[in-house]
Amino acid sequence: MTDDFLPNPALLPAGLRDLLPPDAEIEARSIEAMMDCFAGHGYQRVRPPLVEFEHNLLAGSGAAVSEQTFRLMDPDSQRMLGLRADTTPQVARIANTRLAQSPRPLRLSYAEHCLRVRGSQLAPDRQISQAGIELIGSDAVEADAEIVLAGAEALAVLGLTEVSFDLTLPTMAAMLLDSAGLPPDRRALLAHALDRKDAAAVTALGGSMAATLTRLLLAAGEATPALAALSEVDLPAEARVLADRLAAVVDAIRARAPALRLTVDPLEFRGIRYHTGPCVTVYALGHQQELGRGGRYISGEREPATGLTLFPDVILEAARAPALRPRLYLPAGTDAKLAARFRAEGYATVAALGDEVIDIAAEARRLLCSHLLTDGAAAPLS
Amino acid sequence: MTDDFLPNPALLPAGLRDLLPPDAEIEARSIEAMMDCFAGHGYQRVRPPLVEFEHNLLAGSGAAVSEQTFRLMDPDSQRMLGLRADTTPQVARIANTRLAQSPRPLRLSYAEHCLRVRGSQLAPDRQISQAGIELIGSDAVEADAEIVLAGAEALAVLGLTEVSFDLTLPTMAAMLLDSAGLPPDRRALLAHALDRKDAAAVTALGGSMAATLTRLLLAAGEATPALAALSEVDLPAEARVLADRLAAVVDAIRARAPALRLTVDPLEFRGIRYHTGPCVTVYALGHQQELGRGGRYISGEREPATGLTLFPDVILEAARAPALRPRLYLPAGTDAKLAARFRAEGYATVAALGDEVIDIAAEARRLLCSHLLTDGAAAPLS
């Protein structure tokens, strides 16, 4: 017999998992702390539904996650629904329809779960938490800066200050590849070489752009020296506008948060989906997985917008765990008002349920309590 | 042309909706306030995944929501998944598998979204928020009382004190119908009459149970007189145990919360799914929809358990809205530290994004701000 005939009730599909105590509470509290930080910056929360008509869910920027989207049949409408794989397109839809008349710039926030058809080797989870902000209707450099600053502050609330924001220009590489005027197969080889950061191959394949591309590969790393190098590269006019924009965004961030660790990588274009301008990826020092990513896009095919999505699942692996309530065992017959007072003081009270208990301290320990109510006080258990 | 050819991007499937500002934030904060209250009573949070293997999701108590469960195909495992329509069965699964070795009684809590294939006329929403608690591994009267008391406290945190807990015994009616020994068609008519609370039909159809059933119909309403009436009804032994249990639960609740409004309805059995003992439905006075429901069941086919699920969507219609952050407009060039101070004081700051603004107060009003930063202070806008 195989597993098909012996179903295991504990078995979950690959990439899906149960969050157990205390992780589930830590996650929920951390998400709300980040959302509260976003609310402090004027971002107002929206909550789109888990599923929508496939046609709407995958329109516009949603098309980028079409292959990752689960479909289901709606017996009510007899139409196909999609289960969201990303929240940003839904927020853009809300901005573009129900909140079309709200004043711009429009600041929206969200904290949602998404489901994806496949996990990746680096990020095997198929259910993903997203906590994010979208700033819709402004093309200002200050808008790009604000999403980085609000993101940094939200991470700092969780104790994550050893973070790095990597700023990229994902449309830059394509722009320069176009300028090189190469035949398609050689262009593909060059793009692959850029992706690998293979300077020798870029020099060999780059044609008229070889020198520019090679210099740009070197204009990466810590923001100040990289931007100095970038400013000296001879770029086509369109690419120069992009590069200057990146420098202006870094200046605007530095003006408000001089100590924030910033790197730039002007030729990075992996993970590009619907982005049109400066983008950002957030890392915790010493951790490989991204804490979040975002950048500039067009909302509803007409409005300039930028946003940042943080990934709570990854963040919680890097953040310090918050202190949870100490657990206080209440023997049978404890006065209800006394119990309420301890809860108000921050204890989790664990009440006896009329069971026969001989050794109260042993019972409290068995129930994983840290304290025992003794003579009206919370006595720590050794 | 029909709507099929002119898709409306704002159109959502029936029973699904966007929560907009300020509702989405109010909902999230209210849920966390209730969860914090549950944590105060020692309930530890779990977070099951949105989807599971259909076979596991619909096992045990999950079978009750099988018809309401959306299915989807998992390309990874090539097996059918179910999208949860109820969270309690998932929590029971966790208790029974991953937390099988955790000490009993086990107190777990959750706050999740569920999706249902169909809405009802009274409750058309197909995406449902659930915030609940499960108390697994205790058959004590105090356990039944605790879930009511914790639920009442969670609602009180949201300002909902004008609530009523209606206690029922959903297995009582079937027990008495069995005792009546009626042919199936007459039994069905009698059950229908009980459901309609039609005393004349119950008397006519009740056979040997007519007098008992009619007296039980009258033993409903405010708990004290109803339980007094119930205590005098002559019941079969098994039904008497149930009735006495209900009285004991009311006593245990009254001992801790004498002012809590309690009603009983021993013959009520609508909405029964997997319940085996005393159950409860929560109402806000003057509101028709249920704020929550719960009761006693068997977890994992072997452990006595009880639980309560609150419905935040309904609760928020009845609760007073909490105060949200006042919005403070920050003109361009505002000092970053000053802005942070106002956020720490509880303002939402709305920063100018380097736009050309001539009339700052008008711009602040346009952005729906309540305050304007003037000479380093938050000046209210008329």
From TrEMBL, chains A, B:
Family per record: Belongs to the class-II aminoacyl-tRNA synthetase family. HisZ subfamily.
Gene Ontology molecular-function annotations: glycosyltransferase activity; histidine-tRNA ligase activity
Residue stretches making up the Class II Histidinyl-tRNA synthetase (HisRS)-like catalytic core domain: 15-311
Alphabetized UniProt keyword annotations: Amino-acid biosynthesis, Cytoplasm, Glycosyltransferase, Histidine biosynthesis, Transferase
Subcellular location per the Swiss-Prot or TrEMBL entry: Cytoplasm
Binding site for L-histidine: 86-88, 116, 130, 134, 270
First-listed, main subcellular location of the protein, grouped into a coarse class: cytoplasm
Pathway: Amino-acid biosynthesis; L-histidine biosynthesis; L-histidine from 5-phospho-alpha-D-ribose 1-diphosphate: step 1/9
Sequence intervals crossing the membrane: none
Annotated Pfam families: tRNA-synt_His
Subunit details: Heteromultimer composed of HisG and HisZ subunits.
Source superkingdom: Bacteria
GO cellular component: cytoplasm
Function comment: Required for the first step of histidine biosynthesis. May allow the feedback regulation of ATP phosphoribosyltransferase activity by histidine.
Protein name: ATP phosphoribosyltransferase regulatory subunit
Other comment: This function is generally fulfilled by the C-terminal part of HisG, which is missing in some bacteria such as this one.
GO annotation terms (biological process): histidyl-tRNA aminoacylation; L-histidine biosynthetic process
Keyword Amino-acid biosynthesis part of the UniProt annotation: yes
